[in-house]
Structure formats: C-alpha cells, structure tokens
Write a structure and sequence with these properties.
single chain; mainly beta; 124 residues
Length: 124
Amino acid sequence: QVQLVESGGGLVQAGGSLRLSCAASGRTFSTAKMGWFRQAPGKEREFVAAVRWSSGNTYYADSVKGRFTISRDNAKNTVYLQMNSLKPEDAAVYYCAADPNSLGIVVTDKYDYWGQGTQVTVSS
C-alpha cells in the first residue's frame, strides 16, 4: 500500500501561481509513476501531469503545457506540481496518484493509489 497526502491548494487570482505537493509513504519503493489529476464540478477526472519515477520523464496535458511543471524529490518521496499563469478553468480538486506499473501514465484508471485531493480555486 502507498499513502498519498496532498497539500498546497488554495485561492489565487487569475495569472497567479500555486505549488502543490504530494508526499508518499508506505511501499514507495514499488512506485513506477506518479501523476496529478483534477476534477471540476460536473466533469470527469482528467489527467494533468505525470512523471516516471525511475527516469524522471514527464508528461503533460495540452491544456497545461508551458504553464505547469511536475517534479519529484526521490529522497523525500514527494512530487510537486508548480502551476503558473493560472486560469479560472484550472479551478478543480487536484488529486495525486501513484502506481507500481509504468504503463498508462496518462490514464486515470491505471493508477491504484490516490490522495484525498486539494482544492484549487482561481478567481477572475
């Protein structure tokens, strides 16, 4: 089992920045990929960004490319999501996810472990 705890959400004005953190504990040695997903009211959960734990290769949704950056700290078993130039449409609950299988890195149902989510609100 892997436990994930997100932090860093909050209220920000459009154009502002936030950094989300996700700390992993438990069987973290088995983690192959970690990702960030988001879910806005009335919408399905969608992929935002992910990182392959061993290689550090990163992947982004087109909607956030150039504005969001995912990074990892192997020693702390923590993944970050730096979000810049935030837009009102970025508002959602952001979830951290992890999985021991490296396949399906952008696919929601290819992640077994999920955090509780952190709210990001962007005012216009």
